[in-house]
Amino acid sequence: MTQEKTKAARGRPKTINRERILDVAMKAYWQEGTRGVSINEICKLAEVSKPGLYREFGNEDGLMEAALAAYIEQTFSPLIATLESQTSLSGVLAELVEFVCNERKELPDGCLMVKMRDTQTKLGDKTQNALAEIHYQFMAFIEGWAQRAREGGEIPETMSNQFVADYIDAQLTAALAQRARGEDVEKVNAVLKMAFSVLA
């Protein structure tokens, strides 16, 4: 009887620590890019078996989608909340500069979303759809701020909402890529402020 119980216990799958796996995967994709880290490496770092990881997330696409969701919750959603508290476009731009140039302890530089967008066509459908949706929401948010800024006389009537959103997105993407490459943060800060001065 005891021997049978021991065998049964050994046969049970280990408990999966989903939060740990997501933290490891998010930081690995953030640091190395989605093409720079394998499932095997993530399994090793998270101390989980490959079958166990697949049971939890389905496949690599499911893991990447979940890692992106974790990134949005930890990093992107707080940024949007901060931007929503601003009362002017210049305040929004200042917060975006702070977001890009702030050196976060124990977190990689740059942006997971930017790295995923760089290899978007090579991502799975779930991750691509999630990435497109959050980018759409961000662009719509900035377009809304552009409209309010125009109504408040902060930007010229000749600048369309879409142009302002596209311009800000392009400058942010470039600056975050520079940060990910380890370029001097003071230089990135100065260049981004100069780029945003066209709008502020």
Can you give a write-up of this model?
The protein has 200 residues and is mostly helical. It has a domain at 61-197: Tetracycline Repressor, domain 2 (Orthogonal Bundle). Helix content is 72%, strand content 0%. It contains 10 helices and no strands. Helix 6 (89-101) packs parallel to helix 9 and helix 6 (89-101) packs antiparallel against helix 10. The longest helix is centred in the last third of the chain and has 27 residues, at 125-151. The chain starts with a helix and ends with a helix. Pfam families: TetR_N. Residues 38-57 bind DNA. GO terms for molecular function: DNA binding. Residues 15-75 form the HTH tetR-type domain.
* Biggest sheet overview: none
Overall number of strands: 0
In percent, how much strand structure appears in the residues? under 5%
How far apart lie the N and C ends?
Answer: 77 Å
Order of helices and strands: HHHHHHHHHH
Short overview:
By secondary structure, this protein is mainly α. The protein has helices spanning 2-11, 18-32, 39-46, 50-57, 60-84, 89-101, 112-118, 125-151, 161-180, 185-196. Helix 2 crosses helix 3 (39-46), helix 5 (60-84) packs parallel to helix 8 and helix 9 (161-180) packs antiparallel against helix 10.
Identify the notable features of this structure and list them briefly.
200 residues, mainly alpha, Tetracycline Repressor, domain 2, disordered N terminus
